[in-house]
Amino acid sequence: MSHLNTGDAAGGASSVGSFMGLMTSAKEKWDSSGANEAMGRVSASIPDSTKQYVGTIFRRDQLRTPAIFFGIGEERGFYVEKNISLLVERLRHNITFFYLNYFLMTILLFCLTVITSPTTLILVGIWAAGCMWFIRASSNGTLALGSVQIPQKTAAVGLGIVSVFYLMWVFQNVFWWTLFSSGFLVFMHALFRDASMHKDMEDAVLMEGELNEDAAFLNA
């Protein structure tokens, strides 16, 4: 029994070592291919104003807590609004107020759909195996396809293009299912969730310190 345990442990250690070696090799090939420099040039070409705008979109404070998202503790967190003008305003406010929650919900649905689809997992596994084969086959700087020698950078570009179209094909059904299901959930939440009491959250002033004439929040 002890021999079996020792063998299993050795096999597991060998597998982990092989995986770590593969990851190290992949990182080295990524660095040597100049991909980091290319990504740096792309990042440098993006205007600072654009970077700042994107940063404000994904700020942590834009993510609403579950209590606010589901109206927990509120007297009428969800109800049917019959006034059309108020309903339109509710939709507008909820979409702008909960947009980051809606985005994360869509990502979560996408991930759940992928991991619960055996066919998708198999196809992704085939793609991952192909990438691993490419890393090993081009470890000497070139990819040999029969008598043809392809430079590693050229082969990497080709692999990237093929991967994009392959993954688009793999995830097409998952993508559309996620899009429609998340769109339905977002619409229903935005339609019935009354978050009007949170409209002034961004204008709230933090009240701290002693209550006197010089208190910061009194002079805000």
UniProtKB/TrEMBL annotation:
Membrane-crossing residue ranges in chain numbering: 97-115, 121-138
Any coiled-coil regions, as ranges: none
Superkingdom in the source lineage: Eukaryota
Signal peptide bounds: none
Main location: membrane
Membrane topology: Multi-pass membrane protein
The protein's name: PRA1 family protein
